[in-house]
Amino acid sequence: MSLFNPTRDEVREFFFGLWAKSRAGEALTPLESMALAIVLEHPEYHEVLGDPERHREREWPPEAGETNPFLHLSMHLAIEEQVSIDQPPGIREAVRRLEERHGSGHEARHAVMDCLAEVVWQAQRNAAPFDNATYLDCLARRL
Fold first, then answer.
1. CA distances, 92 to each of 34, 81, 98, 99, 107 (Å)
2. Which residue of 4, 48, 67, 118 lies most exposed, with the fewest beta carbons within 10 A?
3. Are 79 and 113 in contact (CB under 8 A)?
4. Secondary structure, 3-state, 87-112
């Protein structure tokens, strides 16, 4: 799997494999351990992860009001990685303050996810690089 630009299929296989390894009690890499903590916070996705044959090619169209579990879990993982290395600088403190405001690390990360999705969408729409300043400004507005 390409670490920095995985395909849709690679992301799905990562999460299917992670869930299977976890259920089998196999040793996990540090990245898998981080991802498993996120998966465990989302029991609504356990059935999907446990049935790769049924869900490998499934689409979750947003216009149908569905959340793509792989996208959701991947965004959580991206946020955890950002916080762990404080990149962009200041995100760790912003997330800490959001946790205080929301009273929940999980809810704080959902607020961060909204900003992350918006800035990624803007970058894609404008064929521009990800804008760290816009991202951090979005987070500051949520504090």
1. 16, 10, 10, 11, 15
2. 4
3. yes
4. CCCCHHHHHHHHHHHHCCHHHHHHHH
Q: How confident is the model at residue 52 (pLDDT cuts 50, 70, 90)?
A: very high
Q: pLDDT tens-digit profile of 22-34?
A: 999 999 999 999 9
By C-alpha distance, which of 14, 26, 73 is closest to 45? Answer: 73
State the pTM of this model.
0.91
Which pair of tokens denotes residue 9? 């299929």
Phi-psi region of 28 (alpha: psi -120 to 50; beta: other; left: phi over 0): beta
Q: How far apart are CA 130 and CA 77, in angstroms?
A: 17
Distance of CA 56 to the CA centre of its chain: 18
